[in-house]
UniProtKB/TrEMBL annotation:
<protein>
    <submittedName>
        <fullName>3-isopropylmalate dehydrogenase</fullName>
    </submittedName>
</protein>
<dbReference type="InterPro" id="IPR050501">
    <property type="entry name" value="ICDH/IPMDH"/>
</dbReference>
<keyword id="KW-0479">Metal-binding</keyword>
<dbReference type="GO" id="GO:0051287">
    <property type="term" value="F:NAD binding"/>
</dbReference>
<dbReference type="GO" id="GO:0016616">
    <property type="term" value="F:oxidoreductase activity, acting on the CH-OH group of donors, NAD or NADP as acceptor"/>
</dbReference>
<keyword id="KW-0464">Manganese</keyword>
<dbReference type="GO" id="GO:0000287">
    <property type="term" value="F:magnesium ion binding"/>
</dbReference>
<keyword id="KW-0560">Oxidoreductase</keyword>
<dbReference type="InterPro" id="IPR024084">
    <property type="entry name" value="IsoPropMal-DH-like_dom"/>
</dbReference>
<keyword id="KW-0520">NAD</keyword>
<feature type="domain" description="Isopropylmalate dehydrogenase-like">
    <location>
        <begin position="6"/>
        <end position="346"/>
    </location>
</feature>
<dbReference type="Pfam" id="PF00180">
    <property type="entry name" value="Iso_dh"/>
</dbReference>
<dbReference type="InterPro" id="IPR019818">
    <property type="entry name" value="IsoCit/isopropylmalate_DH_CS"/>
</dbReference>
């Protein structure tokens, strides 16, 4: 019987539809080459849909819940007040679907330029696991005396043992399959209460995983060590806010936002996980054909691995890396190929099976995708 998976597609705003279109073209090629099928349903979600209907995540929650996985483009538009889409759709989905771990590989691929002098792919191959439903992103706060000189803004940050424990345990299991090193990144000398809870959980769970070496780095020190000595790190686990910041730094190190990818993982199979590039909607270049679709296509690779299509996931990753390594630049017209041309070239390599597996001999995407329970 042919393997089949149901995919919810959310192209979203800005460059989202362009890069998702490329990812779906690559998915067509992967299906033809690797003997599986997908049932896809596209949903109108994002700024345009919100402005027309006022609908956010609640309008599609039950339909999305039935999918095996979600492929997400981007969301955001200058016409919509900041915070409405981010809180009303993205954060709401992460919390309602308990997508507890945001997993972001930081991997410098062969042939991809980096602004870090003398950095080689062998020195940059780590993964950052960001707690994805709590911290400062619970979306709770208030302003008193708004609009006056006496305005007071309060923003809550919530840390629960249960929330920390599930993402730390996942990170230990991830480290077991890699180089067996786990680093906690926090700010324990200032955020004492939250920091102590994180440290306590890491210490207690560490007793279950004696094979894994545990390290600690303050978040400000991480901003120094990560670009200069990325080889120091294997699996980094951190809270929601710190993870949001240091993963963007990681993206710069690995060649830019256009090549960075992520997975928002539901760890127990009770709801679909969601896969997305991290570059945002970039409305200033939407429709110009100058967006790099690699991040979205690597998100597809993560999704395929999560669904049990490991061979296809590695093939998509290898094809993407081969095309990236041949580009004169990784952003804008200087790439030498348009968004669609890059997608087509990657799809052709996947379909032909000619991409060199040597480019990704220890595929990080396959390692990550094998750990959480899928819904198949």
């Amino acid at each position: 019987m042919t393997r089949s998976h149901s995919i919810a597609v959310l192209p979203g705003d800005g460059i989202g539809p362009e890069v998702v279109s490329c990812a779906l073209q690559v998915l067509d090629a992967a299906e033809a080459r690797h003997g599986f099928t997908t049932e896809r349903r596209e949903y109108a979600a994002g700024a345009g849909h919100y402005l027309e209907t006022g609908e956010l995540f609640a309008a599609v929650e039950e339909e999305l819940r039935d999918a095996d996985a979600i492929l997400f483009g981007s969301m955001g538009d200058p016409r919509v007040t900041p915070g409405i889409l981010e809180r009303g759709f993205i954060l709401e989905m992460r919390q309602r679907f308990q997508q507890a771990a945001n997993v972001r590989p930081v991997r410098l691929y062969p042939g991809v330029p980096t602004p870090i002098a003398d950095l080689t792919p062998e020195r940059c191959e780590l993964v950052i696991v960001r707690e994805n439903t709590e911290g400062a992103y619970v979306g709770r706060g208030s302003t008193v005396h708004a609009g006056t000189p006496h305005a007071v803004a309060m923003q809550e940050s919530l840390n629960t043992r249960a929330g920390i424990e599930r993402v730390v345990d996942f990170s230990f299991r991830l480290a077991l399959g890699r180089r067996r090193r786990l680093t906690l990144c926090h700010k324990t000398n200032i955020l004492v209460a939250a920091g102590q809870l994180w440290q306590q959980v890491v210490a207690e769970l560490g007793e279950r995983y004696p094979e894994v070496e545990v390290d600690y780095v303050h978040v400000d020190a991480m901003c120094f060590h990560l670009p200069l000595t990325p080889e120091r790190f294997d699996v980094v686990v951190t809270d929601n806010l710190f993870g949001d910041i240091i993963t963007d730094l990681g993206a710069v190190i690995q060649g830019g936002l256009g090549v960075a990818t992520s997975a928002n993982l539901n760890l127990d199979g009770t709801a679909p996980s969601m896969f997305e590039a991290i570059h945002g909607s970039a409305p200033d270049i939407a429709g110009t054909g100058t967006a790099n679709p690699a991040g979205a296509i690597l998100s597809l690779a993560l999704m395929l691995g999560h669904l049990g299509e490991g061979e296809a996931a590695r093939a998509v990753e290898a094809a993407t890396v081969e095309v990236l390594g041949g580009l004169p630049a990784l952003a804008g017209p200087a790439m030498g190929l348009s968004t669609g041309e890059i997608g087509s070239r990657i799809a052709d390599l996947v379909r032909s099976g000619e991409a060199s597996a040597e480019l990704v001999p220890d595929s990080l995407l396959g390692t990550l995708a094998a750990l959480p329970a899928s819904r198949r």
